[in-house]
Each structure stands twice: as C-alpha cells, then as structure tokens.
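To: structure subgroup
Subject: Chain for Friday's discussion

All,

I'm putting the inputs and outputs inline so they're searchable in the archive.
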Amino acid sequence: MNRLHTTSFKALKKIQALWRKLIHVIDPPANAEDLREVVEELMEEPLSESGITSAERSLLSNIIKLRERRVGDCMVPRADIIALDLNASIKELVEEMSANGFSRIPIYRGTLDDVIGMAHVKDLVPFLAQQRPCLIPDILRPVLYVAPSMPAAKLLVQMRHSRQHMAVVIDEFGGVDGLVTIEDLVEEIVGEIEDEHDAPLPPPVLARADGTLLVDAGLTLESFEAQTNTRLPALDGEEVDTLGGYVTHLAGRIPQVGEIVQGKGGLTFEVLEMEQNRVNRLRLRGARRADGALPLQNA
C-alpha cells in the first residue's frame, strides 16, 4: 500500500470514528469524553490528509465551541424582543408577524416579565382560512424557561426532545433577560440563516477608502478585533461586551445620533444610528493594526 492509499485509509478511519460519535456531540454519553480530542486532532491535520473540507472543518469547530457557550451568549436581548399582550387582537398579531417576518411571537400577560407562551402562525392558518373567530388564548403554545447560564448545547437538546422551539431567558430576579429560538442555536453552528423575507443587512464591518470603518455596534469586542486585526484600548475599571457598550462607557452616558465620542490612542467613534437607548451603528476613525497599517488591509 503506497503512502497516498495509507493516508486516505487513515483519514477514512478517523472520519468514520468521528461521525459515529458526532451524533452525540450535542448530547454526549458518558463514554464520549474523548470527543473533543478526536475532533481537534482531526482539525489540526492538513486538509490534504484529514479527508475533510474547510467548510466541514469550520462546522466541526463551531460544534465544539457550542459546547462552551451559554444561553446568554446566544439570546436575543430583552430590548430586541418583539412580543404581544395576551389581550391583543388577532389582527394585531397578524400585523406584527407580517411586519417582522416572524412565525412565532411570545405572548405576555400585562408585562414582558410575565411571558406565558407563544403564538405560532401555523395555528392561525385554519382560523383565517375558514374565517372563524379566534383569540390569542385559543392558539397559545408553551415555551421553555431557562437561565442565561445554561449551556447552549443542553438547551438545543432540550428543545429537540420537547419539540418546543422558543425559550424565555429568566434572570436571577425572575425578570425576562432575553429570548432564544432553536434557529439562534443552529446559527451558532452553521452561521446566519436568511430566508427570502430577510432584507439584506449591511456587513458588520465595512472599511472605507478614507480609512474609517462603518461598524455594527452590536459586535462583540472580540469579534471586532478578530475581523479587523486590531486591539481596542482597555477601559478603566469596567468590562463591556459590545462596541456599543464600549462607546457608552467612554461617553459616560447614553450618546446621541451624530455625537462623536473620543477614545484613547486617537480613536474617535461617531454614532450613526440609535434604537431606543442603544447604539446601533458607528463610524470609527483612527483604528490601526499593531503594524501600523489600516484595519482589514491585506487581511
């Protein structure tokens, strides 16, 4: 057997062993403790010898990372939740679903901190098709209630077993912290899932010819630094997760559209868009890589 055949055979055996265990990657049995080592060893090998493509390698890497992430890392924050009161009309529900392109909407009683279920468009269709009267309580489905510290992989398994695809994230005081759907968890593995109803989004980081960056303020600092090969100066005495939080901390208050916030090292942040009290989009000036080049240059 020549070297090529030997390499192919070894790769095939590893892939077979990997895929036998991969069905347990999200919900591993007690005898699959070495799964991480098997996958990491396979991913460390050159593509020509591992027998997997770069896309497959990326998926495997994301699966491993999912086991390290918590629900709080994947959820839609409270400020972005679209929900309806139990006493809203079916007309309001249909309009909300249509306006936002959602098939599921959480339903609360009186306040968002009392989410009691969700409404699914599939349950609406028979009433609308037959022009029968209907109230939101008639189509209410249960949701899961989880803590932000719950492992994301564990929630994905729970959703699959319970066939409930929406979970309300509850903080330590019993209030609603966020919302997570099964699509949010799957996107942690396969990337953003867009359908025909989704409007195209601007790129999270756009480098302009004048050296400025147009940036989604919801980006985590880690993601921004990885995408631009830059490092933001550390803040004094506080940790923040997103660029919007970083700029708000620098300003010492909630900034306004058009405001320019001065950072360290010659960095300036211009607030381009706001939504309620949250920064949505920024223009950065003065960002530089460690070698002095403009961000994204030769990246």
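Points worth raising on Friday:
Residues 59 and 77 are 25 Å apart (CA to CA).
The chain has eleven helices and 13 strands.

D.
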